[in-house]
Each structure stands twice: as structure tokens, then as C-alpha cells.
Write a structure and sequence with these properties.
It is a single chain. The protein is an alpha/beta fold and 417 residues long. It folds into two domains: 5-77 and 374-416, Urease, subunit C, domain 1; 79-365, TIM Barrel (Alpha-Beta Barrel), CATH 3.20.20.140. 37% of the residues lie in helices and 22% in strands. The chain is built from 16 helices and 16 strands. The strands form two sheets. Strands 1, 2, 3, 4, 5, 14, 15 and 16 form an eight-stranded mixed beta sheet that branches. Strands 6-7-8-9-10-11-12-13 form an eight-stranded parallel beta sheet. Helix 5 (126-142) crosses helix 6 (158-174). The chain is globular and about 70 Å long. The chain binds zinc ion. Residues 82, 84, 252, 327 line the site of zinc ion.
Length: 417
């Protein structure tokens, strides 16, 4: 097979070469950078990585497309392991309420919050749901994300949850960005089950999950384990039902309070526990022992005007492998992993190298894809981005603008400016 494409002369080629698993502790600081680096791509796959001189010598025959990355950073496409991509409507009016100090409950009572989005999503036609979500997806691609996870969770009843998962599948089919689907029926107790969370848990376990598993509409099942939402026994019941059907597990854990979510994630063998703004020490140690990945979402406290960011520095030092995600949702309309990396450095005391590891190989591992994507290494899928900055530290340093100038998905250029 002849080579298709060479990317040459990168001021920094950020390869993240290393073990094909989530990186922990000091491993997270090692980006394995090649100065004046180059990548050779053939048939959608990376076939060689090294210095420009040696790549040109071994692969530089005539007739091959060559991209000059002089003065630029070349690295693996971002992987966003936690998004609520699919929903209808928006909640920009809540910004003013939050600024005036209204509480979450007051916003909910004023017609805002998650139940507002549930109503908007239930009312939207499949076409509207697809179009509104596609617009966000295009922006995520333009900001360098080449693989994302996307959850259901604004339908809650069986039909609309399935409509959301079908929308995710159609977006995955029609756009050059890979989407991993997650069932999040346990996002909030729907109005029709108000006051009876146990009955809703049974409904999910008996009526909904078996159908979703049979139709292969989701790879993961996620639960919002939090005081006042789903408690530990209810969360465990949903997760074990999903596990029995062959789905992978994720947990929204310890976001507002220590509610036992981190421990539960480790106990049931979840691939990740997400948020972790208020985990207990026991929960952190249980995760470190089981290699449960901590997916941190610094856009969420930012958009909620909260000071309670996860302590990324401490979690890394205690040995939890950390990934980063946008948590894109109507309360946190964040489409950019670059902004997320910047927040992780400025608000959670992660270094630029740690944050980039968390947004690539560790995020891939949080989706079970660490052997296929997340680093620039021979045999991996050629999901590659070029950024118009001289070194990787400029990603968190220059915030609020898009540094990406080229996105390559599976060896094909899919976005450029
Ligand atoms: Zn979330």
C-alpha cells in the first residue's frame, strides 16, 4: 500500500507515544514530543512517525500529498469523553438569574433547569433534534474533536430516549467525527414518576435497557448518582442491570456533594467516574486501586458560577488516571476541548502536558478506545489536528479563540481554515 499523505516540519509533533492504556501520575507529563516532526499516513492509518528528515527519506516518493506544518503543533485529535450533545432549545436566560444569585432550585421553579430541556426535547421533531445537534457537532469538529461520547437523558420516557440514541447514530453516520453512544435514562426522575424514583429505576431496568442493548443503541450506561437525584442503591441497580446486558458503565459522581459515587464506580467496575468535584478520600483511593478513570469537567463549575472545581492536581498525585471532557449541555454550552484544557490548567492546577494527555489518550481510554486512537503511533487511526501555535503550552495559554487550523479524520482532511 502506497502512502497517501505526509505531514512535515511540525515545530512540535506531540505523539503521546507510550503504553496503550490510561496514563497515571508522572506518565501524564510525558507527551513524547518530536521537534521538527512528521507523520506518514496510508489508508487512514498512521504508518510512521519521526523526524521530518527520516520520514522524507523513507516515505518521500513523488506524487504523495504533503502538508507543511512549519511553525505549528501537530497532535492527535481531541477525544471528548463526556457530552450531552443531543438536546433541543437553549437556556441562555438562566445566565442572568445565576448572576443575580438565584439557586438551582429557584431556577428550576422558574421554568428553567433540566426539566425545561426535557420538555423542549420531547416536543422537538427528530429533524429539529438532528439539526440543532448537528450544528454543535460541526463546531466541535472545527475545534479539533475527532471522537466524542454523547448521552441520552433528556427524553427519559422510552420513545424519546430511543429517539435521542437514534439521532446520535445518524450523526455518527453522516459526520466525519466518531460518536460513542451512552444511555443516561437515570439523569433525573421524570415528572410522570415524581416522588417514586424506585419505580422509575425498575422501569429503566425492565422496560428500557433490554431493548437498547438488543438494538445496540448504546455502548455505555451512565447514572446521575447524587443526593436528591439517584442514591447509591438506585444507581447500583441501574448499573448492574446494564452490566448484565453487556454495556460498559459510567457514573456522574460526587458533583455537588460526596454521595458515594466514586466508590460505587470502582465497586461495579465502571470505566470512569465523572465530575468528582467533591469525592471522599475513600472514593479516590478505591478508584486508584481499580484504575477507574476520573473524567473532570471544569466547564460545569465555570458555567454554574461555582468555585468548586475538582482538585485535578491532588487526584493525579494520588494515582487516579485523569481525562477531561466538555460536559456540553444546555447549562454548560462548551464545544471546545481547547477551552476545557485551559480551564483545567487555570482552575484545577493541571500542567499543560497533563491536560493534553487527559484530552487525548486518557479520554480515549475513558471510552475503551486507547488501542485505536488518542496518540500518534504506528497502527493507530489517522485522526490528526494541526494548530497554529509554536508549542503545546499555547493551547491553555491562549484561551477564548480557536487555534486549530486543520482537522484530519481517518487520513482525510475534513476541516480547514
Ligand atoms: Zn454530564
Amino acid at each position: 500500500m502506497a502512502d497517501d499523505l505526509l505531514i512535515l516540519n511540525a515545530s512540535e509533533l506531540v505523539t503521546l507515544k507510550g503504553p496503550r492504556r490510561a496514563r497515571a501520575k508522572a506518565e501524564m507529563s510525558d507527551l513524547s514530543i518530536v521537534q521538527d516532526g512528521a507523520v506518514a499516513i496510508s489508508d487512514g492509518v498512521i504508518v510512521d512517525v519521526g523526524k521530518t528528515e527520516s520520514i522524507l527519506r523513507d516515505h518521500g516518493s513523488t506524487g504523495i500529498e504533503k502538508i507543511d506544518a512549519s511553525g505549528k503543533v501537530v497532535m492527535p485529535g481531541f477525544v471528548d469523553p463526556h457530552t450531552h450533545l443531543v438536546y433541543a432549545g437553549s437556556r441562555e436566560f438562566e445566565l442572568e438569574l445565576k448572576a443575580k444569585g438565584k439557586s438551582y432550585m429557584e431556577i428550576l421553579e422558574g421554568g428553567g433547569g433540566i426539566l425545561r430541556t426535557v420538555r423542549d426535547t420531547r416536543d422537538a421533531s427528530p429533524q429539529v433534534l438532528f439539526r440543532q445537534s448537528a450544528k454543535r457537532l460541526e463546531s466541535m469538529l472545527a475545534h479539533g474533536s475527532t471522537t466524542i461520547e454523547a448521552k441520552s437523558g433528556y427524553g427519559l420516557d422510552k420513545d424519546v430516549e430511543i429517539r435521542m440514541l437514534e439521532t446520535i447514530k445518524r450523526l455518527d453516520d453522516e459526520y466525519p467525527i466518531s460518536i460513542v453512544p451512552t444511555y443516561l435514562g437515570a439523569h433525573v426522575v421524570p415528572p410522570e414518576f415524581k416522588g417514586d424514583g424506585d419505580a422509575y429505576v425498575d422501569f429503566m431496568a425492565i422496560e428500557v435497557l433490554p431493548d437498547i442493548a438488543r438494538r445496540k443503541l448504546a455502548e455505555f450506561c451512565d447514572v446521575f448518582c447524587e443526593k436528591g437525584v439517584f442514591d447509591v442503591p438506585q444507581s447500583r441497580k441501574v448499573l448492574l442491570a446494564a452490566k448484565g446486558l453487556g454495556l460498559g458503565l459510567k457514573v456522574h459522581a460526587d458533583e455537588f456533594s460526596n454521595s458515594g459515587g466514586a466508590q460505587l464506580a470502582a465497586e461495579v467496575g465502571a470505566i470512569s467516574a465523572d465530575h468528582l468535584d467533591k469525592p471522599s478520600d475513600d472514593g479516590i483511593m478505591a478508584m486508584a486501586r481499580r484504575d477507574t478513570i476520573g473524567v473532570l469537567l471544569p466547564g460545569t463549575p465555570f458555567s454554574s458560577m461555582s468555585k468548586d472545581y475538582a482538585d485535578g492536581r491532588r487526584l493525579i498525585d494520588l494515582g487516579v488516571p485523569i481525562a477531561l471532557g466538555t460536559d456540553l449541555n444546555p447549562n454548560c454550552w462548551n464545544e471546545s476541548m481547547q477551552f476545557t484544557i485551559s480551564l483545567a490548567c487555570h482552575k484545577m492546577r493541571m500542567t499543560p502536558a497533563e491536560a493534553i494527555t487527559a484530552a487525548t489518550i486518557n479520554a480515549a481510554a475513558a471510552l475503551g478506545l486507547e488501542k485505536k486512537i488518542g496518540s500518534l503511533e504506528q497502527g493507530k487511526r489517522a485522526d490528526v489536528i494541526m494548530l497554529d501555535i509554536p508549542t503545546h503550552a499555547h493551547i491553555p495559554y491562549k484561551f477564548g479563540t480557536n487555534q486549530v487550523s486543520l482537522v484530519i479524520k481517518g487520513g482525510r482532511s475534513v476541516w480547514e481554515r
